[in-house]
Amino acid sequence: MKRASAARAGLTAVAVVAMLTVSGCREDYTGLPDPDAPSSGQVSGSASPTPSAEQSGPRTLVDAPRAGGLDKLTGEQALTDAPVDPGEMRDGMTLVIGNYGDPGGQGAPVLFEGVDHVPEDSSKRREHLFRGMIEYIQWDPELGQPEAQPVEPGPLGGSVECLLASLSEEGNVICGWADEGTAAVALFEDSTLADAGKLFVEMRGNLEG
Fold first, then answer.
1. Is 207 helix (H, G, I), strand (E, B) or coil?
2. Which residue windows does the record flag with biased composition (Polar residues) (predicted)?
C-alpha cells in the first residue's frame, strides 16, 4: 500500500535532531490497543527488551548522515517536523527524525523516528510509535491488526520487531526496536518483512550510539 500523497507533501526542508516537549498520546484511530492504558498489552505481546552482553548502560541516538548504506536526505526530501507523535518528551530526551535513501531519488525513502533516554519501559514507547506509524500510512483497521514479528536484533541486542501493513507479501513494512533507554521505528515502502528487517538492523548500527 502507498502512503497518501498528502502525507508525502508534508515532508520538507532539513532533517533535524531536536528536543521537543509535546503532549501525550494522540487519540487512537488504528484499532490497536492503547499501550498507555494500564490494562493494554503490546502490539505483538513480546517481553520487555533484554540488554545484550555488549551493552553497558543506556544508549543514545545519533543524527547519522548515513545509515545502513542510505544517505540522510536533504532539500525537498528532508524532514522538518515529526510525522509521527513520539509520545511525551521529557527533559534529557532527544528526538531523532529523518528520511534515508538514494539522494538521486531512486525508490521511496525510509522514514525513521526514534527517541532516547526513555524513562518508562522502552517497549511500551515502541508500541506508541508503531501505532502512530500505522495511523500515518492510513491503514484501515477494518482490514485487521498487523502482527509484529521478531527480528534478530544483531550486536546491539534489545528487541527488534517488524510488521507488514499489506494484504500481500510485499508492501508497507514498519520495523521498531526497543532496548535500555531507546525506542525507534522506521517505515519501508514496497518491501518485505525479511528485507526490511535486515536493513533496519543495519541502519540501527549507525543510528544508535
1. helix
2. 39-58
How many Cα atoms within 13 Å fall on the side-chain side of residue 40?
17
Residue 62 grid cell = 545519533
Asked if residues 59 and 208 have their Cβ atoms less than 8 Å apart, the reply is yes
Helices (H) and strands (E) in the chain, counts: 3, 9
Rounded Cα gap, residues 177 and 201, in angstroms: 9
| Distances 177 to 11, 122, 200 between C-alpha atoms, Å | 23, 9, 9
Could you give the C-alpha distances from 131 to 15, 58, 81, 85, in angstroms and in order?
A: 22, 24, 18, 9
Q: Could you tell me the pTM of the whole model?
A: 0.74
- Grid look-up 517488524 returns 162
Burial of 152 (0-12, 13-18, 19+ CB in 10 A): exposed
CA distances in angstroms from 7 to 66, 78, 161, listed in the order given: 24, 13, 24
How many angstroms separate the CA atoms of 186 and 99, rounded?
A: 9
Which cell numbers hold the place of 42? Answer: 503490546
Amino acid at 57: G
What are the angstrom distances between the C-alpha of 126 and each of 30, 102, 199? Answer: 15, 26, 18
Q: Which of 20, 57, 45 lies closest to 124 in space, CA to CA?
A: 45
